[in-house]
Design a protein that fits this description.
The protein has about 160 residues and is mostly helical. It is built from five helices and no strands. The N and C termini lie far apart (about 50 Å). Bound molecules: fe (ii) ion.
Amino acid sequence: MEQLNSSISADSRQVIADALYQGVSETTITTMLAQNFHWNVTGMAFGPLHSMFQEIYEDHFEAQDDLAERMKAIGAYVDGNLSAMVKQSKISECDGQMSDQDMIKVMVQAQEALASTLAGAGDVAANHGDKLTEDLCIERGLKHEKFAWMLRAHLS
Ligand SMILES: [Fe+2]
C-alpha cells in the first residue's frame, strides 16, 4: 500500500481496495460473459439480445477501469491478471452454447450478484469514511440492478 496524505489509514484503504477488487474481478468476468453471449446468441430475438449484450459489455469494460483506477487512487496495487480475477470472482465463466433464455437467466444472476458485491463494497467504504468510493459503488450497483430489470423483462 502506497503512502498517501489521506485521512483514511493505510489499513482501511487496503480493506476498501480488497472490496473494490471483488467488484473489478466480477465486472471483468461479466464483461467477457456478455461478449460470449453477444457472439453466440441465437433465436428470434437475436437482434435485440445481440445489442443488449453489447450494451452490457461496453458498460462493464469502462466500469472495470473506473473501479481499478479507484484502487490506484487510494494507493493500492491492482492485479490485472485474468487468472487472479477468475479465482476471486463469485460469478463464473460459462459455455456460450445455451438457449437465449438461459443466457438471459445467467446474465440476470450475474447482474444481481454484481449489484450485491458493489453494495457491499460501498458499505465497506462508508464504514471506513471513504465517501468517494462509496459513491462509485452506489453508481455501479444501480447500473447493475437496472440491467437485471431490463434482462428480466425479456423473460416475462
Ligand atoms: Fe460485435
